Structures are given as C-alpha cells and as structure tokens.
C-alpha cells in the first residue's frame, strides 16, 4: 500500500515524492533504520563535507556547543519555572533555564530574554499573541523586500487572525519609505510594525521607524533572525537601543546555535505577556536540550568580541567584489554592496533565481533564490541570496571566496557544465578542511 504524502502539492513536488516513495524498503525497524542511515550518510557527505554552503539561513554549531548537545534531555519535559516545575526530579536542568536567558540578556543588552520558543516563527507568533488581538492590523515588509512568511497572512499572523498590510518601501534606500510611513500608519493604524528582513544588506533606520510607529500608537518588532549573530556581537545595529520595543530571532542562522527562537525586550509588561504566550500558550515541552548548546553559543559570542561577526561581513564584501568582477549584477553596489554577511545578486537575466539556484546546486554550491525590492508584482524571484556565516566557520579565506565566485561565474555566466565544476568545488572544500586541520 502506497499512500501519497501530499496529493495537494505541486506536480513537481508530487513527482519527487513519488520517486522517493518508490525506493523505500520494507517497514521493518531494521530496514527503516538502514534507509535512514544511508540517507543521512549521503546527505552529510554531499552537504556538510563536500558542499560549498552559501545558504544564508543555516550554520554549523561550534564543537563546544555540539559537545553539550544531548537529545535525551529533550525527551524529559521540564515544564514551568524552576522551583515550581510540573515534574519532579529534574532540578539539575534548572541551570539551563536560568543560564541561557541570562547569557542572552547580557549579549543583547536587554532586560528580558525568552528562549523557550522552538523557532523564530513561534517566537513571532508569541509576540503577535501577546501584543495583538484577532482582527488587529500589523504592518510588515513586503515579501519582495525580504518580509518573512512568519510576518505575512499566509503564516503566523494569519493563525492569530490578524490583518496584514505591507509597509511602504523605498527600493532605492533598501528600507522602509520614511516619507510615506507617517501618513500610512495614520491610515492603517496597525498594532504592530514588523521590520527585519530575510535579506538585509544595510541596517534599517530603526530610530526613525520607531518614532513614527510610536507616534501612531504602534509597537515596533525587529525580527533579527538573519542578523542575530551580528546583533548579538554588537555589530550591524542595536535594534532595542535604537528604539524597537521587541526583538525576535532564530538561533541557528548567523547566531550559530541550535534551532530555536528568542524574544528579547526591555519592557517588563511585554516580557510577561510574551512569556505566557510561549509557555503555556504555544508550547508544552519546550525542549530543554536546546538550551545547553544555546548557552554555550551565547558564551562564545560574548567571549569572541565580535571577531566572527567581523569576519562574516568582511567575507561578504570580498565575495561581492569578486562576483561583480566576474560580471554578476550585485545589489547595493553604490553603497559598498553590503554591511552584513548577506550578498544579493540580480539574476533575472540568467533565467531567474530558481534556475540559477538549481544550476549552482548541481555544481555543489548551495544557496537560495530570493525576491528583490525592485521586482514587479507577481514576478518570480529574480535574486540569489548568499550568506558567509557558514563558509567563514569552515575556514574559507579571501582567496577561497574569490575561487568560489569564479566557479559561480563559470556555471552561470560562461556556460560551464555543472558536473566538472562540482569536482573543483569538492576539491576546494577538501583543501580548506585540510588546511583548517
Ligand atoms: C528564517 C526566518 C524566520 C524563521 O525562523 P525559524 O526559526 O526557522 O522559524 C523568521 N523571520 C525571519 C526574518 C527569518 O528570516
């Protein structure tokens, strides 16, 4: 008996799932374990060992963080505040629940940090739950400007029953259109303004946006999911100090920790409401196992004094310059390409983001397509987004980044077949791993 996983999915997805389903073995524990092990081994080789990962929404944890990761702890629900747990006998785990948020507060210079959300999506939903009622309006970045699914009606705000409107956006400034913002907020009267994009080359003008939001009676949420590693290191920008009321982020992207979400604020009333929304509102077992590597990662960022963040942004500029020399249309050229670890290419003339991404994947270079602020409504994503947070951890230096840019040029600009390029990419990874020891 073969059940179709998702008969409502696209033809492309259904084809792929049908092909995978046809290769599954018997449903015995041994066969299933074998199937899973083969898949994980092949994945680890293709992606972790041989891949050049420029996908901005991922990272690799440090070996110290990995060393304290014990999945079994996550199988022990430890619910409620230390001292009044629903369960008994778990008091040693209380350390994790005090250590992780207190390190996070130090790192962010915030009074309160809620670390129990399983993801930034859930952290955002907790903020919507705490600060808005069904039927309220929130104003968010348009998708073509990097507004995330968890800001849009199809995602978490829809679950909360919120009305979602797009903020006016200035594609030239790569930020919210400040001239339009005041009148827009007066008209729409949102409860919450959400900024912080999935592609962010330059800081938002948080102070100016906060001033206008507050004047219109709205609170400002800055979603630093992608920027968290920089923000936590005191780089890029300090959203709370600049005027945002709430900060959320993913802990597994530039932050470099385990998957999870954080909500930080200086406002005790907001903190209390968010806390109740996270637990018991949106989680039961919030997975204490995550908190150990999260705490170690936070301590590493604290001790590192911004060095990793600086390497990531320097690498992004090196990569952007090299890609421009190859002949790519690099976004933000007039302003030095980027002030973060992100780089964006406009590949509309090369078949669009999706086609370029697939061609690079065949060459062992992994990243994602993304919308760009100047694309027309309904136009498929015309951009490629690159992030340097993983390659920096893997030991890529300036020369390796230039070689990577050249491989991308070979594949996308000079018509090289991806297969042979993949061999060169794997060789480059081996060389760098060997050098890093
Ligand atoms: C990636 C991302 C998220 C979602 O993060 P998860 O932890 O995977 O839920 C939320 N907001 C923004 C801006 C993101 O880029």
Explain this structure to me?
Helices cover 46% and strands 13% of the residues. It is an alpha/beta fold and 437 residues long. The strands form four sheets. A seven-stranded mixed sheet has the order 2-10-9-8-7-3-4. It folds into two domains: 63-303, Type I PLP-dependent aspartate aminotransferase-like (Major domain) (Aspartate Aminotransferase, domain 2, 3-Layer(aba) Sandwich); 306-436, Aspartate Aminotransferase, domain 1, CATH 3.90.1150. α6 crosses α12 (268-282), α14 (307-326) runs parallel beside α17 (398-412) and α17 packs antiparallel against α18. The longest helix is centred in the N-terminal third of the chain and has 21 residues, at 29-49. The structure holds pyridoxal-5'-phosphate. Residues 57, 119-121, 148, 150, 196, 198, 223, 225-226, 250, 261 line the site of pyridoxal-5'-phosphate. Belongs to the SHMT family. Residues 45-407 form the Serine hydroxymethyltransferase-like domain. It comes from Actinomadura parmotrematis. GO terms for molecular function: transaminase activity.
Kindly summarize this structure in a few lines.
The chain is 46% helix and 13% strand.
The number of domains? 2
Which percent range fits the helix content? 40-55%
Task: Report the top-level CATH class of the largest domain.
Answer: Alpha Beta
| Global morphology | globular
The CATH topology of the largest domain is: Aspartate Aminotransferase, domain 2
Query: What is the strand tally?
Result: 15
CATH superfamily of the largest domain: Type I PLP-dependent aspartate aminotransferase-like (Major domain)
Mean pLDDT: 97
Q: Architecture of the largest domain in CATH?
A: 3-Layer(aba) Sandwich
Coarse structural class: alpha/beta
Keywords: Aminotransferase, Pyridoxal phosphate, Transferase
Pfam families: SHMT (PF00464)
Domain Serine hydroxymethyltransferase-like: 45-407
Cofactor: pyridoxal 5'-phosphate
